[in-house]
User: Fold this.
Amino acid sequence: MTYILGIVSQKGGVGKSTIARLLAVELAKENFSVKIADLDTQQTTSTDWSSDRYQNAVTPEIQVQPFGNLKTAIKESNNFDIYILDGKPHSSSQTVEIAKVSNIIIIPTGQTKDDLRPSVALAHSLVNSGVEISKICFALTKTTNSQTEITAALQYLKQTEYYVLSGFLPISTAYATAHDQGKAVTETSYHTLNIKAKEIAQSIIDRLSNK
Assistant:
């Protein structure tokens, strides 16, 4: 059975491709066959990262392919244990389509209300389009290191009916450097940062195992 993970966002730059790459690497390390379908053909962030990973001989190798439409991308899904859909930013008909074919949907969001409000609005719009509430998960990303601010953001999300993943990803130059080298945010030179990233990955995997 193939599990499909959809990663969507209302805004660009909130960590959508970061989560896709993180999951792909951690699942591949557990010997799952994984592929990222990069549906953001304007940015191709995951696709370019995969090329960097290959050129720098980072293992495990991660398969990433850009697709112009979801229908073509889904044809590939049965060849893998885990198929990750890295969607376009901003709500669109494709966002709804991704949500409907996915076992779980991950919405990354920053910690400010400017990020949280549109992210929750996106979740509401998916539910209004017929997507099951239980599929939708929020991941807190691009945060500061202020525990007070992080706690406030988590409380905001937990007031909704949606599942909130454990952990958070802070803004870090080490994460950016890892991406530049074709690595995931669990592959930095800093153990503490790797542990933070692994917590989110494990929370997603645990949620997926319950579907």
